[in-house]
Design a protein that fits this description.
single chain, 221 residues, alpha/beta, five-stranded parallel beta sheet, three-stranded antiparallel beta sheet, binds 2'-deoxycytidine-5'-monophosphate
């Protein structure tokens, strides 16, 4: 297959990373989890006692935050492995504030575009098809009902030993969707040329097969 860029966007906890990871593995593409970058930045801010709602203070530390995505989903922040820490509830609750700051987005988007240079990749996020890689060969907008998303995230967290309740998760997901969709710069929305995929009643394997079929059809062999 020629160099192919696949963009998967959609609201919080819609299963994008699970699907993106599996699709990338099947096709031998690089997987880029852009949400992990916003999470790592949020982790840095919280660790340094900066108020995530204080845009000026959060933006001021841009030169001090170096985020790297490594193979096997490893995320480094200034060389420290923060892969696990960035999934914690306090990071999830604050990441939408960080992701709404234009200067932080510009810095991370630049890094994301570099990661997509010269390789076939599957990149997931909120603004990949609309802003980061508008010329992506394939664009998917993956959604699921709030109930399905909270249920999935609950099982994931349980697996990882992260305590939570479904009600709490629903509230967090709703809040995050609201902030992500209503920010001024590069908000969450479906690109006009993205394929809308509602996965509420689909298994992981079904979604993977569907996405692979879409890629095959759009990008060819
Ligand atoms: O996909 P995720 O839950 O790990 O993303 C974490 C947050 O980062 C999410 O609330 C929105 C933000 N985000 C973003 O604004 N743009 C992206 N490309 C990826 C994530």
């Amino acid at each position: 297959m020629k160099k192919t860029i696949v963009a998967i966007d959609g609201p919080a906890a819609a299963g994008k990373s699970t699907i993106a990871k599996r699709v990338a593995k099947k096709l031998g593409f690089t997987y880029v989890d852009t949400g992990a970058m916003y999470r790592a930045y949020t982790y840095y801010v919280l660790q340094h006692g900066i108020d995530p709602k204080d845009e000026k203070a959060c933006v001021a530390v841009i030169p001090q935050v170096d985020i790297e995505l490594k193979p096997n989903d490893i995320v480094l922040c200034n060389g420290e492995d923060v892969t696990k820490q960035i999934r914690a509830n306090d990071v999830s609750r604050n990441v939408s504030f960080i992701a709404s700051y234009k200067d932080i987005r510009l810095a991370l988007v630049e890094a994301q575009r570099k990661l997509a240079n010269n390789v076939s990749c599957v990149m997931d996020g909120r603004d990949i098809g609309t802003y980061v890689l508008p010329n992506a060969d394939v664009k998917i907008y993956q959604v699921a009902s709030v109930e399905a998303r909270a249920e999935r995230r609950y099982l994931e967290n349980k697996d990882k030993g992260i305590p939570c309740t479904i009600e709490e998760l629903k509230k967090d997901i709703d809040t995050r969707d609201y902030i992500d969709s209503n920010r001024d710069f590069a908000p969450l929305r479906k690109a006009e040329d993205a394929i809308y995929l509602d996965t509420s009643n689909m298994s992981i394997d079904e979604v993977v097969d569907k996405v692979l079929a879409i890629i095959e059809e759009k990008a060819g062999k």
